[in-house]
Write a structure and sequence with these properties.
Blueprint (H helix, E strand, L loop, with lengths): L1 H24 L7 E5 L3 E3 L6 E7 L9 H4 L2 E5 L12 E2 L5 E9 L2 E2 L4 E6 L11 E7 L6 H12 L7 E7 L19 H8 L7 E4 L3 E3 L4 H14 L4 E10 L4 E10 L3 E11 L2 E2 L7 E2 L2 E5 L12 E3 L4 E9 L13 E8 L4 E8 L11
Parallel strand pairs: 2-8, 9-10
Antiparallel strand pairs: 1-3, 3-5, 4-6, 6-7, 6-8, 9-11, 11-12, 13-14, 14-20, 15-18, 15-19, 15-21, 16-17, 21-22
Length: 364
């Protein structure tokens, strides 16, 4: 017993000595913090970036200290979105004025830092909308996680750049009332999953170019950013008319205008919002693909057109939208998506409510 008491006393003394030694070398930070940025203007090319710094009232740079920099977050004041953990740089492909504050262990900086993003039109004339085909099922217990993540993404910094298309599929053990049957006996959700190597639902396919199963908004944002930097749009899409009648018949009038010469094809889809759960894992279903054109999944040799830069092409579709089984059809729940295929993927797209229209979105 006496030995244990001596041992504990020795350890306590060593700890005290250790603390005293460390305190001489350790920087004691203040409690008032300010944020600054090295560049107040950057190019909207997704490559140019601004770097933030946080200092205390004594001029100590907290962002340079690994022991505390991981506890610093930079926040978009307007949207409330955080940069990724340990990230202190900001880049964008969308023109605008972005104001940030920082938090240090939860304490907010006394000021903000502003970055202006400019000249997107130098890199892309027509604002890009990426079609995210969400492979999902009402029976899928993990699918609501991706639904939530995609909602965060399209309501965040990519609010103008994302169109979600919920492509439902049945499973061997469960039928999905919103699964759209295809001519080969498959359904849309399972066809897309199989085509792009999905290990299961949920899964997302981006502009029919690649698939990705991540269900975290931060990861999706990163992928979107890299994708749009690498593949800017080459054309714009306009929906002049999106008429859907109470019986499901209707007319879509759409146009594309080329920024760069190429071969394109116009396709369409009708999405349904406010669909009942029907025993599914979500309370209500939105963005459900209810009807599509025959060339929805890729360019058709019969309908593709070759355009020179600046040339416009228009097309009128007579459509028929079938009701989901046992669910009353309501055009007020419908949205129309028009997309332009190029020879590799979806080049660009646009969306509007049934009974409405939308013009080309041009970058400044």
């Amino acid at each position: 017993m006496k030995f244990h008491k001596l041992l504990l006393a020795a350890l306590a003394m060593m700890a005290a000595i250790g603390c005293d030694t460390n305190s001489e070398d350790e920087v004691v930070y203040g409690s008032v913090f300010t944020v600054s940025v090295d560049k107040d203007t950057i190019e909207a090319n997704g490559v140019d970036y601004a770097t933030f710094t946080v200092k205390d009232e004594n001029g100590n740079d907290l962002t340079a200290d690994p022991s505390i920099s991981s506890k610093i977050y930079f926040v978009n004041e307007e949207t409330g979105e955080y940069l990724a953990r340990k990230e202190r740089t900001f880049t964008s492909i969308t023109n605008g004025v972005y104001t940030f504050y920082a938090t240090v262990k939860g304490a907010k900086t006394e000021n903000t830092a502003t970055v202006t993003v400019q000249n997107r039109a130098k890199y892309e004339k027509y604002a890009q909308k990426v079609c995210i085909y969400q492979c999902t099922g009402t029976w899928c217990g993990y699918c609501p996680q991706m639904t939530e993540a995609l909602n965060k993404v399209r309501n965040g910094k990519y609010v103008e750049n994302v169109i979600v298309l919920a492509c439902h599929g049945s499973s061997p053990n469960a039928t999905d009332p919103y699964a759209l049957p295809l001519s080969d006996g498959n359904d849309l959700g399972n066809w897309l999953g199989g085509r792009y190597g999905a290990p299961g639902f949920p899964y997302a396919v981006y502009d029919l170019a690649f698939g990705y199963g991540e269900s975290a908004a931060s990861a999706i944002n990163s992928y979107l950013h890299a994708f749009m930097v690498k593949y800017p749009s080459n054309c714009g899409v306009k929906i002049a008319k999106a008429q859907i009648n109470a019986d499901g018949t209707g007319v879509i009038e759409a146009s594309i205008k080329a920024d760069k010469a190429g071969t394109f094809d116009i396709a369409w889809a009708v999405l349904a919002d406010n669909q009942p759960s029907n025993g599914g894992m979500e309370d209500i279903y939105h963005d459900v693909v209810q009807a599509v054109s025959s060339n929805f999944l890729g360019m058709s040799d019969e309908s593709k057109v070759t355009l020179e830069a600046g040339e416009e092409y228009s097309k009128t579709f007579n459509i028929s939208v079938p009701a989901f089984g046992g669910i009353e059809f309501n055009p007020a729940n419908c949205k129309v998506v028009v997309l332009a295929h190029n020879e590799q993927m979806v080049d660009n797209a646009n969306i509007c409510a049934a009974g409405s229209s939308v013009d080309y979105a041009v970058n400044e």
